[in-house]
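Module 6 notes. Inverse folding takes a fixed backbone as the condition and produces residue identities as the prediction. Think of it as a translation problem where the source language is geometry and the target language is the twenty amino acids. Below is one complete input and output pair. Work through it position by position during the lab.
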């Protein structure tokens, strides 16, 4: 099969921060990566290696110190509606209902509410929240709150979905269920996804390719292809092929940690 056309690229990207003491901190260095349309990419690496910094540069929320980030062949200069971002916390306003939280960006941009409300309803049905339109965040589980955040990010039909450890605060069983649901959403919508996680099994389960990063300054140690068939069930985690892939990722992470 031919490789998918690149929609998101980084070319020799570096990010340097100025610390409070005035000393420069090199967070990310020499990252070159090409991500194809409808690819699901996961990124793993030790804490502090620059995973979130990389994601923020992809989103246009942060600017590379050198190198460039391209979206559809054009340099990323700032945030775009073509890119949806989901953070570690769902960031829902407690005084607004589910549908009102989803529709908040529509209000902020003063867009036609009727058109987007219909789309929001369809997306909430897709993620199993069709009966929760009028519920408030305190009435939802953590997983349900993250589904609301996913719907809000998908509302403008972005080409790319960036996810910064969105399931990190959930318990193990809920994380597995959310991985299944995210896979279902991805297969239905075929968005390009970049997903940051500390979970090796989660990274392999979701990905077409796993990007393994080094300790700070974050560089790409290796990109591992995941050719397991889809849709993937939780039973796939018990297969020999899955075990070989997770072992490969863990060995890479252990090797990098040993070089500190």
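Target side of the pair, the amino acids:
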């Amino acid at each position: 099969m031919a490789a998918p056309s690149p929609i998101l690229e980084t070319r020799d990207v570096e990010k340097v921060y100025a610390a409070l003491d005035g000393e420069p901190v090199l967070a990310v260095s020499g990252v070159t990566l090409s991500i194809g349309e409808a690819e699901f990419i996961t990124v793993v690496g030790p804490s502090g290696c620059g995973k979130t910094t990389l994601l923020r540069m992809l989103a246009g929320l942060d600017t590379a110190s050198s190198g460039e980030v391209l979206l559809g062949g054009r340099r990323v200069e700032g945030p775009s509606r073509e890119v949806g971002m989901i953070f570690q916390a769902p960031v829902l306003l407690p005084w607004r209902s589910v549908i009102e939280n989803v529709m908040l960006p529509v209000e902020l941009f003063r867009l036609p509410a009727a058109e987007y409300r219909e789309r929001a309803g369809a997306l909430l049905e897709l993620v199993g929240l069709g009966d929760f339109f009028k519920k408030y965040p305190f009435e939802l589980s953590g997983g349900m709150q993250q589904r609301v955040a996913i719907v809000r990010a998908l509302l403008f039909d972005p080409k790319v979905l960036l996810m910064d450890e969105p399931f990190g605060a959930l318990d193990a069983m809920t994380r597995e269920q959310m991985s299944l649901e995210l896979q279902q959403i991805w297969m239905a919508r075929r968005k390009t996804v970049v997903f940051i996680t500390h979970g090796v099994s989660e990274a392999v389960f979701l990905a077409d390719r796993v990007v393994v990063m080094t300790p700070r300054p974050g560089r790409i140690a290796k990109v591992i292809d995941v050719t397991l068939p889809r849709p993937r069930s939780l039973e796939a985690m018990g297969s020999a092929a899955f075990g070989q892939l997770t072992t490969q990722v863990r060995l890479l992470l252990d090797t990098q940690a040993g070089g500190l």
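Reference fact for the lab report: Strands lie at 6-18, 24-36, 40-44, 66-71, 74-75, 83-86, 160-164, 192-196, 209-213, 220-225.
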